[in-house]
Amino acid sequence: MLACLTAGLSIGCGNGLHEVTGVVLVDGKPAASGVQVLFLPEGNARVATGSVAADGSFVMQTDQKTGVMPGDYIVTLVNSTESIPRPGTPVDESTGSAPRDFFTYSAAVQKLLDRPPTGAGWIPKSYADMQQSPLRVKVPQDGTPLTFEVPANTGDN
Question: CA–CA separation, 107 vs 11, rounded Å?
């Protein structure tokens, strides 16, 4: 499996964070909006997160601030759950109970993440597992946007 990675980072605004931007491609096409990009530190840094936009691009954040702490990271990609209809019933204010359709929604999300659909646009589950993901990045780099290119889920990868 080929995972292309070029590094794109620049120094943040005096907070020790380095700006990290990039794009996620699945079989050469932009990943679905809502795919989650996670940088899991291999040292003492903090976890950084990003959400893929409709054009496949992402901007990483640490503690809700743009940028990433210096260090080595394992990169995971989690499929978007935006295609699953959100619960329409609000929380019962008198009891604080979750609405019944929330449990249906939650089960559908878990099923999608545990067994991603196969075919165009779906990222193999292995990329969401820090033990299996082949993607790595070192922060800081030279300011070039990152590109993570992964194959579509075939059920065998």
Answer: 41
Structural tokens at position 76: 């995971």
Tokens of 72: 């080595």
pLDDT in tens, 112-140: 999 999 988 999 999 999 999 999 999 98
Q: CA 148, 112, 125, 138 torsion: positive or negative?
A: positive
What does the alpha-carbon distance between residue 12 and residue 37 come to, in Å, rounded to a whole number?
19
Half-sphere exposure of 151 (CA within 13 A, CB side): 11
Distances (CA, A) of 143 to 8, 12, 102: 4, 11, 42
Q: Which domains does the chain have, with CATH numbers?
A: 9-79+116-150 (2.60.40.10)
- The answer to whether the CB of 146 falls within 8 A of the CB of 140 is no
pLDDT digits (tens, 9 = 90+) for 69-97: 999 999 999 999 888 877 776 667 777 77
Q: Which residue has the tokens 């019944």?
A: 100
- What span, in angstroms and rounded, lies between the C-alpha atoms of 140 and 8? 8
